[in-house]
């Protein structure tokens, strides 16, 4: 038998044919698997192509949006520049206003200080102002001087000539009754003592020097008069009886 040294190694041709068939089957299986894989790859490629197309469309849309955003950004930048310019102008105006306000405040402070000084001077004048006057000889000139340190006005007034006596003016109306004055201190009053019928007599020129005295005829300057009732009087030889009045009128009375 002839020997065959083929792919299957040592053996006969039948085995080699079988081996080749196995190899071919394996190759066919692998080819089928590769075809399936290729089909899957082709399908995936088709999906990828669709995805790529969608991505391209999205990219185009995004590019359009980016263009819009860029345009808007330019607009915003322009508006920002305008706002910055306006802000700069406002800041400049504010600085000018602040400077004017500072000047006004300085002026107001100076005015307030001047007003305070004037007020103080007025208060001192109102509190301490005084006027003095001196009499000068007749015929001399009047004088006036002011001391700003003591707020004193000094006047010199010459003596004038005596004028003629004017006529008597009309009597003025009676003024209103004044209020009742406060009660004065208690006086010495009437001297204590004395009896019924006595009177109080001033015994000297000293104030309140008095004494109780009994009233007599001598007290009233009738020391020589006899104290006799007419009903008991016996008469007197110094009186001449001329008769008895029986009827008649004496001092308006009828008897």
Q: What would you note in describing this structure?
A:
By secondary structure, the chain is an alpha+beta fold. It has a domain at 128-157. It has 1 helix and 7 strands; from the N terminus they run αβββββββ. It has one helix at residues 13-128, and strands at residues 130-136, 143-147, 152-158, 199-202, 210-213, 249-250, 253-254. The strands form 3 sheets. It has a 3-stranded mixed β-sheet, with no helix packed on it. The N and C termini lie far apart (239 Å). The relative contact order is 0.03.
Key terms for this structure?
single chain, 255 residues, alpha+beta, two-stranded antiparallel sheet, 1 helix, 45% helix, elongated
Global shape: elongated
**Count the strands?**
7
Cα separation of the termini: 239 Å
**Rg calculated over all Cα atoms:** 78 Å
Order of helices and strands: HEEEEEEE
Low-confidence stretches: 1-5
* DSSP helical segment count: 1
């Amino acid at each position: 038998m002839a020997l065959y040294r083929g792919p299957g190694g040592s053996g006969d041709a039948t085995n080699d044919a079988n081996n080749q068939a196995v190899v071919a089957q394996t190759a066919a299986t692998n080819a089928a698997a590769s075809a399936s894989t290729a089909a899957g790859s082709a399908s995936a490629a088709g999906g990828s192509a669709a995805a790529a197309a969608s991505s391209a469309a999205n990219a185009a849309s995004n590019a359009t949006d980016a263009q819009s955003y860029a345009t808007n950004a330019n607009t915003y930048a322009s508006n920002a520049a305008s706002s910055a310019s306006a802000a700069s102008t406002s800041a400049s105006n504010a600085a000018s206003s602040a400077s004017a306000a500072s000047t006004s405040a300085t002026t107001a402070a100076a005015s307030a200080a001047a007003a305070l000084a004037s007020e103080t001077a007025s208060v001192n004048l109102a509190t301490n102002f005084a006027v003095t006057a001196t009499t000068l000889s007749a015929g001399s000139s009047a004088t006036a001087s002011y001391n700003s340190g003591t707020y004193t006005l000094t006047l010199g007034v010459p003596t004038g000539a005596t004028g003629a006596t004017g006529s008597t003016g009309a009597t003025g109306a009676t003024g209103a009754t004044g209020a009742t004055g406060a009660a004065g201190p208690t006086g010495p009053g009437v001297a204590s003592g004395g009896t019924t019928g006595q009177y109080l007599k001033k015994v000297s020129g000293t104030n309140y020097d008095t004494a109780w005295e009994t009233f007599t005829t001598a007290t009233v300057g009738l020391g020589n008069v006899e104290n006799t009732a007419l009903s008991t009087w016996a008469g007197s030889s110094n009186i001449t009886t001329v008769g008895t009045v029986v009827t008649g009128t004496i001092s308006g009375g009828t008897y």
